[in-house]
Amino acid sequence: MGTRDMPLPRQFEFLLGKDRDQWPLEARFIEAAHDGDVRTIKKIAKELDVHGHGIPVTVANTTYMGINALHAAGGRGRLPLYQYLVEELKMDVNKPDTSQDHSPAEHAVAYGNLPTVAYLLDHGADLHQKRQGNVTLLHSAAIRGHSEIVEFLLSRGADVNALSVTGTPLSVASFKGHASTVKILLQHNADPNKGNRLFVALDMALRKSFVSCVKLLIQGGAKVSCASPGDNPLVKAAEKGLTEAIKCLLEAGANANVLDMYGRLPIELAAEYGTREDVEILFPFTSPISTVANWSVDGIISHVKMEIKQLEDGNFVKTRMSELKGQGDEAFKKQDYLKASVFYTQALKMDNFDAKLLSNRSLCFLRMGDGKRAYEDATECAEIRPKWAKAHYRLGAAFMCMKDYNSAYQSLSRALELNPESEEVEKLFWEAMELRS
């Protein structure tokens, strides 16, 4: 547990020690607010009021680590304290703290205090407030699995499909495996297919192996087909050995014949990472693979084991990759980008951490006008080699193809920073700068 996830008194103990007599007066003041102790708040405020501004002014303006009394009050959520701070002292119910950008309502949500959240909304707190990254109160409640607060916020008109840097409230609830919260959001017409590039609900649930959430999302209309290899939910389920999720996806119409970004079918991944049962489930839905001589469950498992054994032979891998890369380069020169991408994919199947192959295939997808797949390869490439200018250049070009000019500008800025002499990077950088909003 990080310090920001701890209740305030524990944070202070962690930072200041357990001897409260040694704490600054401001820290003890904030702890009293956390405990809802109006009497102690006023007592400490009197000690703090060295300039004679009066207790009310001192209470309203005292902070510690960027947090004031109203932020801390969410700890116990005691009504008399809120009445004193909000109704008598007129403290701003929408003012965020300066440490985490959390408003008083955000703090109350974090502590799971529904009555406090209701009180603050009834006294002027903005239901639609957004903190950094466009995170709403509903996102904060959903990611913590506070189902009652989620339902309450929705009843008040919160946007069930609000989009933040980490996706929708449904995305974050799925990522944390809060099945009851996922169910409530879906009942309130959450769109299971809405999200940004990286954070869509079904992908989140599969990434963390939360099968109960996977089932709810599919029942709620999540797409089980994919626009590109990197989006294939069946690949993710097979790779993680999620038998029940595989069954659910197939029943919903998932295509078992879509390759992952490294050229592997779900059934091959099941043979490597899952169980025999997973292979048996996928077998009737999978078209025969030309390289598998014995097309049967046993034949597939044997084929995958043989491939794994070959990949343990460094000389074999080096020779085969060189051949495939050469064939890909030759096809690229002939402007046969589809064929070139196939050869690069076959090579990546042998070594999926080869940044140059990912860069080459990303360029193939760009030439074919497929910005999303180009983006996926460029992202992988940049993760493997974060200080390689070409990786960020490819990423910037992919963003340009998708008309995301702000992101393109950022990626190309990084590429230019790493290679300031590159004319091609500079040219695309200035183009992105002119087009961004």
TrEMBL record:
InterPro entries: Ankyrin_rpt, Ankyrin_rpt-contain_sf, Cul2-RING_E3_ligase_SR, TPR-like_helical_dom_sf, TPR_BSK1_C, TPR_rpt. Pfam families: Ank_2 (PF12796), TPR_BSK1_C (PF25575). PROSITE patterns: ANK_REP_REGION (PS50297), ANK_REPEAT (PS50088), TPR (PS50005), TPR_REGION (PS50293). The keyword Cell division does not apply. ANK repeats lie at residues 100-132, 133-165, 168-197, 229-261. Transmembrane segments: none annotated. TPR repeats lie at residues 389-422. Keywords: ANK repeat, TPR repeat. This is Serine/threonine-protein kinase BSK1-like TPR repeats domain-containing protein. It comes from Lolium multiflorum. The lineage of its organism: Eukaryota, Viridiplantae, Streptophyta, Embryophyta, Tracheophyta.
